[in-house]
Amino acid sequence: MSAHKRILGKSDLAINGAAPAYKQPLHVGRPNIGPEDVFFARARDIMSSRWLTNNGSMVRELESRLAEYLGVKHCVAMCNGTIALEIAIRATGMTGEVIVPSYTFVATAHALHWQGITPVFADIDPDTHNLDPSSVRNAITSRTSGIIGVHLWGRPAPVDDLQAIADEHNLSLIFDAAHAFGCSYKGTMIGSFGQAEVLSFHATKFYNTFEGGAIVTNSDGLAETARLMRNFGFAGYDNVIHPGTNGKMVEICAAMGLTNLEVVDSVVRKNRDNHQAYAEGFASIPGLRILPFDGSERNNYQYVVLEIARESHLSRDDIIKCLHAENILARKYFWPGCHLMEPYRTLNPTAGQALRNTEDVASRVIVLPTGTMISIEDINTIVSIIRTIAEP
Ligand SMILES: *Cc1c(COP(=O)(O)O)cnc(C)c1O
Questions:
Q1: What is the Cα–Cα distance from 136 to 292, expressed in whole angstroms?
Q2: Residue 345 lies in a domain
Q3: Do residues 10 and 390 lie in contact, with contact meaning Cβ atoms separated by under 8 Å?
Q4: I want to staple 121 with a disulfide (CB 3.0 to 4.6 A). Which of 102, 106, 148, 316 is the partner?
Q5: Residues 92, 170 within the same domain
Q6: Pair (74, 216) in one structural domain
Q7: What is the mean pLDDT of residues 351-355?
Q8: pLDDT higher than threshold 80 for residue 14
Q9: pTM of the predicted model as reported, rounded to 2 decimal places
Q10: Does 91 lie in the same domain as 201?
Q11: Is ligand 1 within 6 A of the CB of residue 378?
């Protein structure tokens, strides 16, 4: 109840002395973790084997389990999603300019810039938050070598349209699938599309290995190149046959991955129940909606994206301020867009002119807490706090 009083007296939000709704903050992206005893048993096996890294048995087991789960031929596990992206970009021969959305985590763009490639930002479809194929077409120049689609929020990018554009213009196509572990497109698991897809297993993602990532692909050649690049180009003792970096996943991370893989289906159910509770809660509040998932596909429901209607009187930043005062740490996401972050903002100050939908959506989105640590009661509290703000 203190929450409501506090919100009603908006002006003295931080100073009225009322206790926040939560003593301990509710975070976006609290890790989903499998049974601790199972993880510790694996950790003991690693310690007694004295094999800590370098393509150990846990990493190899994780790779084959993940490939099977995703229905893809090869899984090459890496130390994180960003290095996996960088390696996928190199392994597919991208150079010059590569088209990416601006409405994504900055690593999508940084993985290109870091390697001397120019990310060229295309706009999104405001209904899906994913790349708009016509904007991608408009961004193609003589220097374009590839496209990186992002399955934002775990909702599939327009895979077929992007593949058609790539085929037509002879471009490489990969997907940043950092959000999309366990999701499907037209009934096929994400992981098989484009030349390769890149996963992130960072602690905040739906499925985590503490930190980690992977390249998944059906191409034998690409998988082999990625494996070489991941390990300094070594093809056996003393035999370096390729440029490379250190992208290896360590055994303890693979142990975490194997443990968490055993509970992914229960995490999906929990996320789906949470998502539904949020959607029902906001259905009766004008001007607000939870971005829906396509119920005919597989989804991980990891992102609860609250969208404030363009014509609404509500301010996104006021809602965030009120939630933060209650220790509910909802987040703006992918705001203000990569093109307004450095170095891209300085390199191309007018990019925003072609990114109207990106700037519009980025100003109207809040991501709410979900996952195994959030109860339906928490969700009802969050909805009722926002309902109080929304009432005129
Ligand atoms: C998290 C994320 C990455 C980076 O993955 P890390 O494992 O954190 O390096 C890349 N792209 C997107 C869209 C992400 O959300």
A1: 24
A2: no
A3: no
A4: 102
A5: yes
A6: yes
A7: 97
A8: no
A9: 0.95
A10: yes
A11: no
- Average pLDDT of the chain? 95
CA 200 to ligand 1 center in whole angstroms: 5
CB of residue 208 inside a 6 A radius of ligand 1: no
Atom 13 of ligand 1, residue of closest alpha carbon? 105
- Strands 213-217, 196-200: pairing is antiparallel
Ligand 1 pocket, residue 82 CB under 6 Å: yes
Is the per-residue pLDDT at 11 higher than 70? no
Q: Does pLDDT of 15 surpass 80?
A: no
Alpha carbon distances (Å) from 222 to 41, 89, 106, 138, 239: 34, 11, 25, 29, 20
Give the model's pLDDT for residue 6. 55
Please give the Cα distance from 247 to 251 (Å, whole number): 13
Q: Are residues 70 and 140 in the same domain?
A: yes
pLDDT tens digits along 119-150: 999 999 999 999 999 999 999 999 999 999 99
Cα(261) to centroid(ligand 1), Å: 19
What is the rounded average pLDDT of the residues 47-61?
A: 97
Atom of ligand 1 nearest to the CA of 205: 1
Nearest residue by C-alpha to atom 5 in ligand 1: 81
User: Which residue type does 383 have?
Assistant: V
Distance 178 CA to ligand 1 centre (A): 5
pLDDT in the model for residue 18: 77
- Distance from Cα 165 to the centre of ligand 1, integer Å: 25
- The H or E element containing residue 144 is strand 144-150
Which domain, by its residues, includes 228? Answer: 36-261
